[in-house]
Specification:
2 copies of one chain form a homodimer. Chain A is an all-alpha fold. Chain A has helices at 32-46, 53-60, 64-70, 74-99, 104-118, 127-132, 145-160, 166-190, 194-208. The A-B interface holds A 1, 45-47, 49-50, 125-126, 128-130, 132-134, 136-137, 144-145, 147-149, 152, 171, 174-175, 177-183, 185-186, 188-191, 195, 198-199, 202 and B 1, 45-47, 49-50, 125-126, 128-130, 132-134, 136-137, 144-145, 147-149, 152, 171, 174-175, 177-183, 185-186, 188-191, 195, 198-199, 202. Chain A binds a DNA duplex through residues 19-20, 52-54, 62-66, 68-70, 74-75.
Chain lengths: 211, 211
DNA sequence: GTCTATATAGGGATAGAC
DNA sequence: GTCTATCCCTATATAGAC
């Protein structure tokens, strides 16, 4: 498995040079945020149990000692930080636009653009789906399901502001997210990214239809 | 993680008593099909890397030696057999009804009933989604994505017989399966099985709407 | 077929020097 | 902060007796 870059960096993240970069990983490691981004990519692709410290060391270019320096709690710590990062990123880029005081269409399109970026056009799996697999067997205590819950809730509230009843808004919000999550699975299973693109379009229709 | 029964047994599977049943697992093991059913449950819930031989031994009540007797190829062998089982079950219970010469509504309802049973009303994850996680890193050579591909193709053909164009039939078939797969993820993430039930209803509408 | 015992590798994690 | 070396546990898999 290669270690693709997430391209989820914020403008605020000024990369700094890291002298530790040495051997058999694709490119130089950088800031702590960059490290977290690579961890995020690993966990979303392989789940908690599917990622080894060796994988992480290779993907980041950091030795074991460095990793345990940044994450004293070990692998569980890393996973929790990754979930926290996802929560922050989701809130900043996907949910925040939904709370703005702009037309519904503008809000939805902003959300969908962020979603497209977040999942790399359907090429990157959902962290929640990947981390759900080991729930109950792993030492990760972060609330992964809460990411989906927050997303549904915020989207529901955004639709309610347009006059929909709470029940109908919740139904549409849920349906849209169900379609996105399902498209990620199916697109990867049959290796057809157009399925994800199509699903985003369907979600848009679901959310805007006589909004 | 408990070891729930799949309730996917065929009528043809006559359970036979197995003397090896001994210690700390929920109920007596039985035929080889019963063993595969338990493996299926383990892999769908935890993925390939998330299941250990110890887990399997406990869930089946079989010692390591017995497991390697039934599956000489070890864990990879077990996973491949499980994927093969899923393929056979899917074909027999989900796809076969779609090929029958009965009204479309009858075909779709038969498929949905089987799907409901297959996923235990949304409580059981999709094997494909779980096994996709380790693809490329594990020794499983079975084509897990092929399960989804076959499903889409058979459903598409079933819709085409009703006069839909191939393109539209494929779109609807894909959308229905996307909704089902997504509902499994979301339902488990937010722990609301009604989301899965609702998704089956939506799939039905998608597939039958002016079919 | 199943058991006990074991081989071998890889996992996560830590110690202590630098 | 990073390195080297190491500890300890678990994992898969096998051998050989019954």
């Amino acid at each position: 498995m290669p270690a693709p870059s997430s391209d989820l960096r914020d403008g605020t993240a000024r990369d700094r040079y890291c002298p530790a970069m040495t051997k058999d990983h694709p490119s130089a490691p950088t800031s702590k945020e960059e490290i977290v981004l690579r961890l995020f990519d690993l966990f979303r692709h392989a789940g908690y149990e599917g990622v080894s410290i060796g994988d992480i060391s290779q993907a980041t270019g950091l030795g074991r000692s460095s990793l345990y320096h940044y994450f004293p709690g070990g692998k569980a710590d890393m996973a929790n930080v990754v979930v926290g990062f996802a929560k922050v990123w989701l809130d900043a880029h996907v949910l925040a636009p939904l709370r703005r005081e702009v037309p519904l269409e503008t809000r939805i399109d902003a959300m969908l653009a962020a979603v497209h970026r977040f999942y790399r056009g359907g090429a990157a799996p959902c962290l929640v789906a990947s981390m759900l697999l080991s729930r109950g067997r792993d030492p990760v205590d972060a609330d992964v399901g809460g990411l989906i819950r927050d997303w549904i809730d915020t989207l529901t509230q955004s639709l309610e502001r347009e006059g929909s009843s709470k029940a109908e808004a919740a139904e549409r919000a849920t349906a849209a997210i169900v379609g996105i999550e399902g498209a990620l699975i199916v697109a990867q299973a049959v290796e057809r990214l157009d399925i994800f693109e199509k699903a985003l379009g369907e979600a848009r229709k679901t959310l805007l239809d006589r909004g």
